[in-house]
């Protein structure tokens, strides 16, 4: 019997700006490397700073930056946000350092992103998280694990960003952990996410762009 070829699935590469009384913040930096866009066959590629410009926001206005995890497409443009306090889980940073001790690339982590994190730490802008932490009123982060050693979920008001513990809405509706995470505690992380309420937003679903109201090109407003 011949094996079945999986059907292709469309992905979106997303960042999540937010605003409170304390000003602008951002969940994940995305990346700004055209070579990586080509490597992963992105058909459209807009650096995050340019997307923020469409909201009238300069990178220097981002004062809190939450990294859900250290993969290249979530932590790949740290240098673009020179004033931000950077929040990530301690477990994630420790795992990045361990994995990249003898490698320049491993399982989605890049040495150059770790080097940028080291610069942020040296500048006194790094905030390491254990458990549940309030970044600012109305913005809470929870260390979930699953997808990576220290992958975060982010609560923005009533909305919860599942990040990469659920790539797509179907991961949530079908209670289906993604790939390797299913063997690394991802099922438990997904169950904990589903307990956080109904307003869950997955990390890579292009349906987000179609489902929610547009406020600028390729920018939508979440509930």
Structure description:
It is a single chain. The protein is of the alpha/beta class and 223 residues long. It has a single domain (16-215), classed as Ribonuclease Z/Hydroxyacylglutathione hydrolase-like (Metallo-beta-lactamase, Chain A), CATH 3.60.15. It has helices spanning 34-39, 48-53, 72-75, 90-99, 111-122, 169-173, 186-194, 207-211, and strands at 16-20, 23-27, 62-66, 85-89, 105-106, 109-110, 126-129, 132-136, 139-143, 152-156, 159-163, 200-202, 214-216, 219-220. The strands form 4 sheets. It has a 5-stranded mixed beta sheet.
Question: SSE layout and pairings?
Answer:
Blueprint: E1 16-20, E2 23-27, H1 34-39, H2 48-53, E3 62-66, H3 72-75, E4 85-89, H4 90-99, E5 105-106, E6 109-110, H5 111-122, E7 126-129, E8 132-136, E9 139-143, E10 152-156, E11 159-163, H6 169-173, H7 186-194, E12 200-202, H8 207-211, E13 214-216, E14 219-220
Parallel strand pairs: 2-3, 3-4, 4-7, 11-12
Antiparallel strand pairs: 1-2, 5-6, 8-9, 9-10, 10-11, 13-14
């Amino acid at each position: 019997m011949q094996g079945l070829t999986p059907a292709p699935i469309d992905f979106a590469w997303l960042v999540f700006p937010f605003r409170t009384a304390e000003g602008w913040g951002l969940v994940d930096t995305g990346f700004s490397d055209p070579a990586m866009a080509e490597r992963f066959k992105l058909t459209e590629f807009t650096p995050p700073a340019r997307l923020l410009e469409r909201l009238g926001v300069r990178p220097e206005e981002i004062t809190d930056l939450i990294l859900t995890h250290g993969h290249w497409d979530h932590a790949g443009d740290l240098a673009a946000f020179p004033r931000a306090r950077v929040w990530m889980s301690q477990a994630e940073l420790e795992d990045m350092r361990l994995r990249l001790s003898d490698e320049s690339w491993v399982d989605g982590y890049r040495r150059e992103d770790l080097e940028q994190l080291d610069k942020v730490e040296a500048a006194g802008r790094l905030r390491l998280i254990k458990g549940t932490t309030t970044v600012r009123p109305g913005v809470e982060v929870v260390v979930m694990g699953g997808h990576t050693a220290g992958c975060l979920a982010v609560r923005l008001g009533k909305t919860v960003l599942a990040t990469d513990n659920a790539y797509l809405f179907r991961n949530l509706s079908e209670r289906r952990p993604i790939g390797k995470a299913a063997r690394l505690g991802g099922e438990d992380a997904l169950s904990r996410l589903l307990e956080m309420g109904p307003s869950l937003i997955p990390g890579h679903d292009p349906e987000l762009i179609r489902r929610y109201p547009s406020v600028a090109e390729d920018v939508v407003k979440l509930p």
